[in-house]
Amino acid sequence: MGEDQYMNITVEQELKFPDTTFLSSVLSPEQGSGSSDFVDALTIAVDRLHRTVNDRPDLGKANVVKRIVLISNFLDAAKEDPDDTFGSILVERMQDKGVRMEVISVDVPQYDSQFAAAKKANFELLNRILGGVTHNIRHVGDPLDLLGAFKSKEYSATAYYSGPFRIADTMTIKVKVTKKSSAEKFPSTSKYSDRSRSDDATHTVSLDTEFRAVSNPDEVVAPEDKVKAYKYGKQTVPISSEEENHLKYLPEKDMQAIGFVGLDQIPRHMYMKDSWLVAPEKENPRAHVAMSALARALHRMQKACIIRFVPRANQAVFVGCATPLLGGAERPDCLVLNYLPFTEDVRSYKFAAFNAREELQPTQDQLRAAENLVDALDLAQDGSEHLKPETTANPALHRFFAFMAARALDPDAQLPAHDLQVQHTLSCPFGHKDQAQAALNQLSEQFSVQQQALPDLGDADAAAAPELLGDPEAEFRIGEAASSRVDSVSTQSPVDDFKALIQQGQMSDAIEGLQKAVYTLVDTSLGDRFYNKAFKCVPAFREACIEHSQGQAFNTFLEQMAAKYEHDRLRADFWRRITDAKITLVSTDESSAVETTRDQSEAFLQQHTPTQQAEAQEAAPMEEEEEDEFAGME
To answer: Domain containing 343: what range?
Structure first.
């Protein structure tokens, strides 16, 4: 060993399974002095790993991840290796054990220019070494970015699906599907029992559940006597396991292209669950060529591929959208697969259209203020992106594992305070705050909130006000009305209840309740006794639906009433009241939330208005047979 070799390098701990001793050394490392050669440090790391794998043959298996992490600012020049003799030996030994290199360069702008020549020479040497091994290199400019460099749990690239990707019946591409992104969850706790003192005890806890009959609590129901049941309304429908298996759709494992659509036809809010990577089979050059051609064609034409996907035999069928992801020198062209919803998965919430009223449109000054705010908070103003997903650690997970480390070293450790540096990860970057504050002030000026004064009472209301306020009984009635809350639409005062629910913000309950009240009043009316009360609900319903952009709900309700009562011998008179009042469908002239035109609305009224001839035909049998007043009652 030369005098200038392996200087200022310390082996904190030999390679072994992590324990509290290793954790202590990581949390409180000894600070060294002087400078060292990153190649020497890498040589020692390779030597230690090589020896450990030789001593433990089980660690040499391909499924055991072997990785060396090199963190440095690369400002001190390494020894020259002109013939690349030393570097080739390192590469050979890492290839022999299947070692992966992770290089993290901590960039220091104030020193990078001063030591530019040394850093350039170091990276030239480093690139020659990395060229022969699997590696990943990243640059960080802030120590906080190191949080994203080390994940709480490493996942191997396990193929979720491996098989053919069929395009029509004439072409298949051998692919592998792996997860591209997935939400990381907190570690779950497990049940542990220390009651067993045996050396080979597993300390696991087993749970057994027993069911007892309702009629006889002392009787235990045998497993073979249990059966699954599903709710169907208020009724419970039992289904045996044999019937359940027979009802299942059991498709074969498959991945097939259905067709292609434009990228602008699939909004991102339709993506579901996790993202998956569809890559060509590694040792199949024909698959690489075919996948590259498909991905580049999709990218050039701005298209996406719609895929029918069954990852496992007898599993559910998914419909996915595959978008191109072009690779480079180190990775192939591939597709990113996202699941798309079926109609049962879509949640459709209708809101009032902003373009329906002119006063809801922003002015040019308001638009300009909003644009200035977007520019002020641009996370890539200086050319480098802030808050990269690849380097941004989850603060909640970081705090959890920090506490676990503290508790492992000290069982009595208390919950640590919030790490302000970690919280800074998700805050506004430095240098943007002053500019953003000016944009926020401008935005608040353009969107100021003004309090409107209450309108003056009219003459009639002003005259009645003293009398109303001086009446103790009226005062009691007002207080009682203000304190009461309507929960549903009753048949006693359906219109008032309907309006009260709308004021309480329960639009869907109001619509459903009013429709139910109208049907109840009409269907249980003795003759036309309740027709007038039911009829008053219809124009009130129509007016409210127009005001709150729910015109389609009224149109559906009116069409259902026409189908139910227009030709009903006992209830046709109620429908005649609606047509006599010229109540018809809500058209696009009245609400932008519907698609019914004015001509269609007028045609509906003409089509469903009873004619004189129809009235005469309906009146004839009525004269021959006396009406049964109790026909609509049970």
So the answer is: 158-182+203-349
Is 280 in contact with 175 (CB distance < 8 Å)? yes
Spatial separation of the C-alpha atoms in residues 26 and 409, rounded to whole Å: 12
SS3 61: coil
Structure tokens at 380: 């890539």
User: How many CA within 13 A on the CB side of residue 392?
Assistant: 11
Supply 227's token pair: 């059966």
The answer on 173 and 306 residing in a single domain is yes
Nearest to 424 by CA among 390, 374, 386: 386
Give pLDDT, residue 155: 61
If DSSP codes are grouped into helix, strand and coil, which group holds residue 308? strand
φ/ψ of 174, rounded to 5, equals -75, 120
Is residue 184 a contact partner of residue 152, using CB atoms and an 8 Å limit?
A: yes
d(CA 588, CA 596): 6
Contacts of 369 (CB under 8 A, 6+ apart): 439, 442, 443, 445, 446, 447
DSSP letter string, 302-314: TEEEEEEEESSTT
Q: Which two tokens stand for residue 230?
A: 């599903």
Distance CA 570, CA 627 (A): 8
**In the chain, which residues have pLDDT < 70?**
1-6, 32, 34, 82, 112, 142-157, 352-354, 356, 419-434, 451-484, 611-634
172 and 320 share a domain? yes
Asked if residue 151 is part of any domain, the answer here is no
Amino acid at position 212, single letter: R
Is 266 in contact with 168 (CB distance < 8 Å)?
Answer: no
| Helix H or strand E encompassing 599 | helix 598-607
Q: How far apart are CA 193 and CA 213, in angstroms?
A: 31
pLDDT at 420: 67
Task: Give Cα 365 to chain centroid, integer Å.
Answer: 34
Query: What sign does the CA torsion over 433, 434, 437, 443 have?
Result: negative
The count of domains in the chain is 5
pLDDT at 405: 80
